[in-house]
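Below is a filled-in request sheet from our internal design queue. Each sheet records the structural input a requester submitted and the sequence that came back. We keep these sheets so that new team members can see what a complete request looks like end to end.

REQUESTER: design group, bay 2
PRIORITY: normal
MODE: inverse folding
CHAIN LENGTH: 253
BACKBONE (tokenized):
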């Protein structure tokens, strides 16, 4: 039986997509890339998009959903969304079809079981996902301005965590963004800062998660160097961390 494989096909302010596979079952979370670019990236990581059975959508900002419709239509893939997402928002993607899910409820299909959870972001009905694929557990926690007890509890049962580390507070506050945009990013419906991501990890046991990908780095208000400096100064949690540079592909070991 094949091992679970996964890849960050790209992460950052421009486009985000993650793919997971076991045997002949594969699914994607988000797609902010064109179909041509996603196909290229998937091939580089040795994934076949024809195997994809579901697209899980976190929210309807373009860096997460821009390429969902074309991917969904080409391969006739259902798109999994929050049950309260309005049809008008969903139909902007022009996808094949939708499957509605309720936050906090567990869903099972083939070798996948997943639980969507609510996040806090300035988009309609945003979600994060905790899931088990085969014997492996994962969690995607990005695009949220706050963390909750539910998120902490799920992360403590996660082997592999994809965690937002969107901005450096210093770089954001001293940067060129207008004040309203700085306030939006740092608000409770914005993004997690480097310090917030580190604080989240410091509440974890050192045995879990086993692997953390720090992702969704801002183009303008963050850098791997800024994250490394913050980690060296403030991180108490002991574990494996990989910082996802903008747009780069990261495959499972």
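RETURNED SEQUENCE:
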């Amino acid at each position: 039986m094949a091992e679970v494989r996964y890849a960050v096909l790209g992460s950052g302010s421009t486009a985000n997509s993650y793919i997971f596979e076991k045997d002949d079952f594969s699914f994607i979370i988000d797609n902010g890339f064109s179909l041509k670019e996603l196909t290229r990236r998937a091939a580089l990581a040795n994934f076949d998009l024809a195997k994809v059975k579901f697209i899980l959508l976190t929210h309807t900002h373009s860096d997460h959903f821009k390429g969902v419709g074309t991917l969904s239509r080409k391969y006739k893939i259902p798109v999994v969304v929050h049950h309260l997402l309005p049809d008008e928002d969903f139909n902007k993607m022009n996808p094949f079809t939708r499957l509605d899910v309720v936050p906090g409820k567990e869903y099972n299909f083939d070798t996948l079981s997943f639980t969507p959870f609510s996040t806090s972001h300035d988009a309609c009905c945003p979600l994060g996902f905790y899931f088990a694929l085969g014997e492996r557990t994962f969690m995607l926690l990005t695009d949220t301005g706050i963390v909750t007890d539910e998120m902490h509890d799920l992360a403590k049962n996660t082997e592999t965590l994809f965690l937002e580390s969107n901005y450096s507070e210093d770089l954001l506050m001293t940067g060129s963004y207008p004040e309203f945009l700085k306030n939006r990013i740092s608000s409770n419906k914005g993004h997690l800062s480097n310090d917030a991501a580190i604080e989240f990890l410091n509440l974890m046991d050192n045995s879990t998660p086993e692997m953390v990908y720090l992702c969704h780095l801002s183009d303008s208000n963050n850098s791997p160097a800024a994250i490394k400096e913050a980690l060296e100064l403030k991180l108490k949690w002991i574990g494996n961390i990989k910082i996802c540079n903008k747009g780069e592909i990261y495959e499972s070991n």
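SHEET NOTES:
- Residues 5-251 form a domain with the Metallo-beta-lactamase; Chain A fold (CATH 3.60.15.10).
- The chain is about 25% helix and 30% strand.
FILED BY: M.R.
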